[in-house]
Specification:
Largest sheet: 4 strands, antiparallel
CATH class: Alpha Beta
Strand order of the largest sheet: 2-3-1-4
Distance between the termini: 16 Å
Bound molecules: inosine-5'-diphosphate, magnesium ion
Number of domains: 1
Strand content: 15-25%
């Protein structure tokens, strides 16, 4: 069944000039971009996005990182898109990510790990609505 997931190419990956490589990996895996936005998040925007992690010790550092430079926010559409994108990304810690994954290729450490991907249908729906009005999504 076709579903949508939210992906973010994080500031570390944009600085490394691998936007193209990452989008190529999505497309090769059958994940079609149906909305795309380049932006610099206000710190408050990052804090709202990562609100579930508010009580974690890395929360402030994470939000500073996520607002430190341009990101590319995308909606990806495809069969099983949420799990497919998580598989493509690899584990949160790039040192533990499988070979061939985006984080193994481009992540530096558990914080600067190149990409975000929604982890469930509920969070995908929430995260998509956080960045995109429905009218900006291609059919
Ligand atoms: P995920 O991105 O693989 O879903 P989450 O546990 O949801 O991982 O964490 C959100 C983001 O917070 C991670 O992608 C990473 O950038 C950062 N993060 C997670 N755990 C740590 C940590 O232990 N130290 C520093 N940053 C972390
Ligand atoms: Mg997560």
């Amino acid at each position: 069944m076709s579903e949508r997931t939210l992906a973010i190419i994080k500031p570390d990956a944009v600085k490394k000039h691998v936007i193209g490589d990452i989008i190529h990996r999505y497309e090769q895996a059958g994940l079609r971009p149906v909305a795309m936005r380049m932006m610099v998040m206000a710190k408050q925007t990052a804090e709202g996005f990562y609100a579930v992690h508010k009580s974690r010790p890395f929360f402030d550092s994470l939000c500073t990182f996520m607002s430190s430079g341009p990101v590319v926010v995308l909606i990806l559409s495809g069969d099983n898109a949420i799990k497919k994108n998580r598989d493509l990304m690899g584990a949160t810690d790039p040192a533990k990510a499988d070979k061939g994954t985006i984080r193994a290729a481009h992540g530096a450490n558990i914080e600067f790990n190149a990409v975000h991907g929604s982890d469930s249908p509920e969070t995908a729906k929430q995260e998509i609505a956080y960045f995109f009005p429905e009218m900006d999504v291609v059919r």
